[in-house]
Specification:
Layout (H helix, E strand, L loop, with lengths): L2 H14 L4 E5 L2 H12 L5 E7 L2 E7 L13 E3 L8 E2 L13 E6 L2 E4 H7 L3 E7 L1
Antiparallel strand pairs: 1-3, 2-3, 4-8, 5-8, 6-7, 6-8
Amino acid sequence: MDSIADLLIRITNAQKVKKESVDLPHSRVKEAIARIMMTEGFIGKVDTFARLNKKYLRIVLKYTADKKFLIEGAKRVSTPGRRVYVGAGKVPRVRSGFGLAIISTSKGIMTDNEAREKKIGGEVVCYIW
């Protein structure tokens, strides 16, 4: 019942079968992670909508000109059974800076670059490359 891992798996599976978008149940954490992925250029667009009194998140996927997917891989680092925390000086770099680490800090969910700039650490949520 790891909703963040579910988000990552649904996105990667939808890209493998070349779907245009993917719908999943809404949560503020999933929406924040999806918006970071959109800002960094990994996905196209993020919308919320309601169906039968439940809120959902629609993620429009993004592909290259030759229909290859932009997300090569995604890895859930901190799981419900094993939390991984890092200090401000130990914020990880993913694929020598070509990837993205999403960090949950006391100032909100942010990328590894933002956490380094603000000199704060937190829980490493996932890696995306």
